[in-house]
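Please fill in the sequence for the structure shown.

STRUCTURE ENCODING:
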């Protein structure tokens, strides 16, 4: 490349990552600076080798999550929720049983074998002092600790957190069964019940014991493992993401089980960054003549497309389950979604036409390939089209109740303009 081109490349690289929120960034600032540094000196080979290493780290990053708490606090239920395993499914951590083991137990995530969630015995049932407890539990092997309680946190919990802090590791407090607390309060005080007041009281009550032992005032996440999209669960996820090193965020984002617009966007953003890095790695500095060849490229992208579907809960098994909930057939149901129609040519609108529109849409935001300093291959745009379509469909599904109860017209109120 000419130096001028290299400078444009470097600043485009930098600018690309500025589009993403901190919690969804999969490259560290140091890595971005390093790539930019090499590119600016026109050492593109070095820049690409940094990118390749980063990609390998992102793909292989193991994630080990420690969950500790006494029996009965809802630890097993919480672990299954994180893993995406139903309480009644085979391999689920047994819930509702009292067992006191002194050992940690590993549980794998249902879709991401890189993610292991460790069930640690409550410190109270082991009689270890916090430092010994941590050594016994191999504290160095975890990315973070989640300390859970279904009532107030105890002196024990606070001491444990203090010891974790001393080891320079991250911990988070989660207070479970919030749904039950609210339900009970509402039943017992139907006239004066106020949700916000109840939550505030629980929060204050929980932090009392902790404040005395820990230096600052720790954040406590009020959650229900039966409803991961509600209360503080989404915020807990975002906070965990920020606390992780950037290269570990991708797998964790994809593994998230809560279905909120925020998590769908996180997954989309994470995948967009990965697709971007892969395009650079593949040397996607190509011109973009459209037309022809698309079928061949699609063959190779089939698997990718199916993966995206499953990341966003749009795989056949998931759709069947939702359709069943609505008493509809899957086909009846698919009419309301965009992704199943990406490949069908209706009204003379082929995938190529859709792709061309989509590229126009992206260019209108970025100022086009010349302004961005990159020329991407078709594959890059196709993957992005898939991603945006899947993410939009997932968000539409979120609003499904409204959608199907009212039997409103085709699909969401405002489809993205590249679809028109
Ligand atoms: P563990 O002994 O700490 O592993 O606790 P379990 O996961 O077995 O949960 C104990 C009981 O609490 C079970 O009956 C669960 O169904 C229930 N439970 C767990 N988490 C929640 C929650 O967030 N909300 C409600 N309402 N019940 C929960």
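FILLED IN BY: designer on duty
SEQUENCE:
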């Amino acid at each position: 490349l000419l130096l001028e081109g290299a400078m444009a490349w470097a600043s485009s690289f930098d600018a690309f990552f500025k589009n993403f929120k901190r919690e969804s960034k999969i490259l560290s600032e140091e890595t971005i600076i390093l790539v930019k540094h090499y590119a600016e000196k026109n050492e593109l080979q070095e820049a690409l080798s940094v990118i390749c290493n980063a990609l390998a780290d992102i793909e292989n990053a193991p994630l080990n999550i420690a969950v500790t708490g006494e029996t009965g606090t809802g630890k097993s239920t919480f672990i299954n929720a994180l893993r995406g395993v139903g309480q009644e499914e085979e391999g689920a951590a047994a819930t509702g049983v009292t067992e006191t083991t002194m050992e940690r137990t590993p549980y794998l995530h249902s879709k991401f074998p890189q993610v292991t969630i460790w069930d640690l015995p409550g410190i109270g049932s082991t009689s270890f002092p916090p430092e010994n407890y941590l050594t016994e539990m191999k504290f160095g092997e975890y990315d973070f600790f989640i300390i859970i309680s279904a009532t107030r946190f105890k002196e024990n919990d606070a001491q444990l957190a203090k010891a974790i802090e001393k080891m320079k590791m991250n911990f988070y407090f989660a207070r479970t069964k919030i749904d039950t607390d609210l339900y009970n309060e509402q039943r017992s005080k139907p006239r004066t019940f106020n949700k916000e007041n109840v939550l505030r009281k629980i929060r204050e009550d929980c932090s009392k014991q902790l404040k005395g032992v820990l230096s600052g005032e720790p954040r406590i996440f009020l959650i229900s493992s039966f409803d991961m999209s509600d209360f503080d669960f989404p915020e807990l996820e975002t906070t965990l993401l920020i606390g992780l090193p950037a290269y570990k965020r991708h797998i964790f984002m994809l593994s998230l089980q809560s279905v909120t617009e925020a998590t769908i966007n996180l997954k989309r953003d994470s995948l967009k960054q990965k697709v971007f890095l892969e395009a650079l790695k593949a040397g996607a500095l190509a011109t973009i003549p459209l037309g022809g060849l698309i079928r061949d490229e699609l063959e190779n992208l089939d698997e990718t497309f199916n993966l995206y579907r499953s990341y966003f809960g749009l795989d056949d098994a998931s759709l069947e389950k939702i359709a069943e909930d609505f008493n509809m057939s899957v086909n009846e149901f698919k009419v309301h979604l965009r992704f199943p129609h990406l490949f069908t040519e209706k009204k003379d609108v082929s995938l190529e036409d859709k792709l061309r529109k989509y590229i126009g849409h992206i260019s209108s935001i970025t100022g086009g390939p010349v302004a961005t300093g990159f020329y991407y291959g078709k594959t890059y745009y196709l993957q992005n089209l898939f991603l945006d379509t899947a993410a939009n469909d997932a968000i539409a599904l979120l609003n499904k109740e409204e959608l199907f109860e009212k039997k409103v017209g085709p699909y969401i109120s405002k489809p993205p303009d590249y679809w028109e």
